[in-house]
Amino acid sequence: MPKEQNITLEFEEKRCSLHLINPQEYSKYRKDSIPIQEELMESIYTLNWIKSILPNIQYPHYYMALKGLFGESDDFYDDYKCSFGYLFLVKIEESNYTLNLTDNKGCFSFYFRKLFITANEFEQYRDIPRDIIHEPFNDFSKEDMKYKIFCDESNHLLNTKSNLMVNGAILVDEERDEEINRHIKYLKRKYDHFHELKWTKLLNSKRDFYKELIDYFFESEMRFKATFIPNKKEHTHSLHNNSHDEFYYIVYFYTMRNFMNRSDEYKIYLDYKDINGGKRIKKLKETLGKQAKSCDIYIIQSQESQILQLCDIFIGAIGYKNRTDLNSKESEVKLFIIEYLEEKLGYPLVATAPWVEKFNIFRWYLG
Fold it and tell me: What is the value of pTM for the model shown?
């Protein structure tokens, strides 16, 4: 067990310090504490202070960051099975908490408890139940985040030549939506691209435009997630007791679930496909509404949103990369975009690890 180490940071004008403690100290503190809902604490403090030390950190790097800062994890966690644990006393202004930050075989968990140290705190919280999880106290003020998600799909119908299906979504902060759309329009004017951006209507003469557009995505705070299914066979759906329509909603759920947080608000925009849009909105809201504080879904035409058009390019690239029904892939501009995306990503447009956040591809082989 390493010696106690401290880190002090400031977030949202609040001073936050973390003090590494041992299991005996943690057990002692636990007697005079109550459990706190982890979701808010995780998003505000735990991940933020790690990321502030190591920017652009991904999930597998958390252990490396913690080990570098605090040494090996406690003995009761099994490093051989990829599990680790760190115990902290967290001080935020005048309030005190304990944090049990653990990974147990791939499940990353945050357990917070509010400590009662002073006589006033004991008196104030004396009658609060100790065996239920509580909402965060006034020490943590969090403004609800508002996001927009732009969704598109390719080859979602059964009676198409290709046997693959790609469903994609781009997440943006609601406040940045107009700025992003304006910038993409600016890039279009810069390169004399006066048409709607579509994978099926790419121009070989506009390679520089596509390259700068992709660069802009990776420099921005936008995130992309795709669900890629290489075998969308109807009899495969029946193996899971789902019709193709029911399967459609399941795919959307898998595409957007990692974007959504129960404490935030979302506006979801779907590309118009057919006259069944109203029915799909109702069903999708039933499916996705449980994942957010509020969730409104709209159907729009792709020409109404530059972000939706960008999503079309990404899912088109994934689909073209993985098509096996083509004797040859002769479109130079499509291959150029795929190669440039793969260069930016550092991996092929086939599948990614679950923890990849910027450009995630979930490959789901049915059967």
Answer: 0.65
